[in-house]
Amino acid sequence: MRTIVELRNVSIKGKGQYRLKNIHLNIESQERIALLGKSGAGKTTLIQVLNGTLVPDCGEAKWKGLEIHRLSQRKRQSIGTLWQDLRLIEELTVIQNINSGSLGRHNLIWAIGNLLGFIDNEHGLNCLSAVGLSNEKIHSSIMELSGGQKQRVAIARLLNQKSELLLADEPISNLDPVLVDDILNLFLSSGRYYSIDVPETAIVSLHRPDLIHNFSRVIGLKEGQIVFDQSTKNISKEDLKSIYQ
Amino acid sequence: MTEKGKSLSAPILAFLPAIALIPVLSEIFKEVHGGGLHLLGKFALASFQPSLDPLIIQHAFRGLQITIATALISWTISMCAGSLLGVLSSNVFWRSYRNLGWLSSVFNSLISIPRSIHELVWGLLLLQLFGLNPWVAIVAICIPYSALVARVLRDQLESLDHRPMVAITKNGASPISAFFTALMPAMVPIMTTYGSYRLECALRGATLLGVFGLGGIGTELQLTLQSLEFNEMWTSLWMLGVLMFGLEKTMAQIRKRQAKSINLQKFLLPGLFIIMGLFILCFLWLQILEVDILSTLRMHPITLPQSKELIKAIYSFKYFELIFNTLLIMVLATGIAVGLPPVMLILFPTKKWVTALNILWSFLRLIPPPLSALLLLLITTPSVSVAALALGIHNLGIMGRLLKEGLESQNNAQHQAMLSAGAGMRGAWLYGLFSKQSKSYLAYGAYRADVIVRETSVVGVIGGVGLGWQLQESLSSFGWSEVIVIIAIYIFITRGVETVSNNIRKTLLIDPTKTQINNVFQPNRFVFQ
User: Fold this and answer.
1) pLDDT tens for residues A10-34?
2) Which one of A74, A80, A89 has the shortest CB-CB distance to B181?
3) Does the beta-carbon distance from A116 to B268 stay under 8 Å?
4) CATH number 1.10.3720.10 given to B14-30+302-528
5) Alpha-carbon torsion B310, B316, B318, B322, what sign?
6) Which of A8, A184, A207, B11 has the CB geometry, 3.0–4.6 Å to B435, for a possible disulfide?
7) What is this structure's pTM?
8) Cβ A91–B186 below 8 Å, yes or no?
9) ipTM entry
10) Distance of alpha carbon B202 from alpha carbon B206, whole angstroms
11) Tens digits of per-residue pLDDT, B156-187?
């Protein structure tokens, strides 16, 4: 295992208060990390620092030794994000959205070809199967899908990116209980899942502490600060209480 | 002092501008001379007896074809150039290129000047520079239209949700691929709607330029009016009317279909092929009509004015009077255009009356404002009021149609509730239908003032007043220093009016209780005309 992400004394301020305060964090490859905390604890902010959307007001956030917000286009492909608001392109079809996950590996002509429906991507279809959506849906417009189906398309797009690190912000909030297990299994599986490569490292923010058992490590956040950061087996009820009180 | 609850509400405010008709008509009636009344009567009667002489029909049909081909070529070029400029002038396009963000401001400044000047002014300028050539009309339309398309595209691009684009960029896509993938699909339906409006405008523009001698149906209209051959004039007017009616209906159908859903894969490529095919076809068409579209533009040598001459020109005009008259034409014309449609509708809000008004509005839209001004001059003398009335009634035709479409597209549950509660026909219309539309209607009226101020140049030339008239005078005498000064003033006035109308629109379109933009006359639907 090697360190892929390093956060040193990272703070983010917003509206007169800290959204993140003095965060120190090392993330090793192949770790499966659950982020826990109440709404507003800083989970989304931390994920946005990790994908380079937010630049720390102080401190350093690094991906393999390079500042995250300065990463080149090629290196940005290594970090995939499942956004809380999904950020799907409503005007495009399911398969066009999934294909957009691999834009980092292709040029503008390919991008235009995808818009015109010329791109038939087998890997994209495998990603769709992996999230449990039938192939009949590939040409459906995103607007025609339910909330849960949209969530799965967003996950398929993320898988199609073939990233090394998976950042997921509340990925199961719109899913029914059976699908919650399937999606978590997918995120936590190592290596291949339904013939697709799953990112080897995952950081998943959750609002349900009962789902942390299969993660290797749990980070608890409260008011922008890390309250605990330890192996899942060492998490006690008191730890969980401390972040939800 | 205005107390809360006692200020005028939007539905009433929408009626008030109609007051402009009173000073306009009183000035016109003061100067009326009976000699021209029978001519006006002849003009009206001739509408029932258009000339059916095959030679006249042939001439009119040829003119119509030239206008259509000119409009289509201008429209294609301006849509392509405008789309490119719109992308380049948007902040969102340059956002990902950190060191090049300033380029959006450069492109924005670049498009702000051409769109401030009406296509007729460009046409007259180019006519002086290059002489009579089919390209003069095409380029005259393309310059302001490209800038207008660019402005709308830019505004729409900025108003879209950028989060999907950010998401794709953060995942490693190149900024340009992310831009096209995330934003272009949303832009296609908007640009189709806007493009259809622009095509109607291009046809009107090409007709108008024809009135000033640049060929096509407009020239036929001008020549027949000048020789008082009203029956022949009506042959051309009916042809133009049928064309505009057909186009309006077709475009309304396209907008309706496309509002439901648009399949990018099935739509984009065939659409592009059809447009390019039409473009090439129009060249061949003009050649067949013996309009030498392939001839090259040759610039007549002109002497550019020295700085001394420019300074002299600055001091040579009575600016206050010219600017005042131009703004007065705009205010009066906007009042007529905005205030009269609701007044006309509330008189008898029945289906038959609305249909009759719709026919009247179609007719008013059809006649280019300079021809209306010339018709008015048959019975009165040139004045601000003649220019304002000619411009006002043309725009009244456009505002009337928009109001009718807006009223028809909204839910009429409140109207029915009012009627079932025993409200009278007019009361129910005012409270149950119009009140819902009034704010957005007024907001669109504010935008119309932008368009009207540009058009003052068109009627000023005929009405003998304002900057338009002075521009024509200076152009005829090759006074280039004066032309430059007048155009600079025009740009200044247009930008000023644009800023004021933007602020009015923003104030009107935001509902403070919902912080939401009203959607019926939403800018992305109707800022287009």
Assistant:
1) 999 887 788 999 999 999 999 999 9
2) A89
3) yes
4) yes
5) negative
6) B11
7) 0.80
8) yes
9) 0.73
10) 6
11) 888 888 888 988 888 888 888 899 888 888 88
